[in-house]
Amino acid sequence: MVVIRTAIPNKGRLADDAAALLRAIGLRVPSASDRKLLVNSGKGRYEVLFASPWDIPRYVAGGAADVGITGLDIVEETGNHVKRLLPLNFGACRLTLAAPEDSPLRAVDDVPDGASVATSFPNLVRSYFRRRGKEVRVVEVRGAAEVTPNVGAADLIADLVETGSTLRMNHLRAIDVVLESRAVLIAGADALGSKGQEIREFASAIGSVVEAESRRYLMANVPTAKLEEVRAFLPGISGPTIMNLIGRDDMVAMHVVVTEDAVNGIISLLKEAGATGILVMPIERMVV
Ligand code: AMP
Q: Is residue 115 a part of any domain in this protein?
């Protein structure tokens, strides 16, 4: 039997979502705090390796794991040779270049040669400035870069930002985005060769969960006379499904898949059109 070993973060921001994603495709994943770092998690077909998110690209490139979940920022920074199979819908953040609020720097063009930039992403930051023909001094830090301009350890920072509140708290202003990041599913070239079919199956299962997460299954009884009007605001994967209601010709049952953020608007429109029995349900998986 082919065993797929998946590396996921053992702690930090991506750990819980990565474990939840594997659970959603049926793997038994203990909580990372159980301290066992390599677990068998699905009738012998899967193993889960808990690792530092920074080590995951190297493990996957070298074959210690077949696939892995980590941040795109880390994949790009470490530069290991891995294939990106799928962007995932968590861990969204931006590697952001920021300067003190009271500095005259408002855009990357204002950054003078010789300026120092504190970051945990020295490779990405160097190539970002190289592409713009600028020579900066990269000050490599392991975290908490935001404090460095305030204590005179660097002129600017490049750090991961989600909402920008940490920047504001430290009196910093974002001046550019070096990289848009989110969690990604990666695979190693060797594994794709020898276990290609199993890895594609695994990625497709993950993909179906990711697709389903942002959608809802909506059902409603709609007046037959309003069907055309209702169809106009309902996309559906291939249009809504319409079914007869036994003993009624003034109403039909309608089923449709809609995006989560459209649900509230659609419910209002359906009510206006006289729909009744409106139900909204989660979808476990969606294969498109
Ligand atoms: P951490 O657990 O803080 O070491 O971060 C691990 C990964 O989580 C990062 O490399 C990013 O891919 C991702 N991440 C998502 N949002 C943020 C954020 N606001 N700050 C830092 N990392 C984030």
A: yes
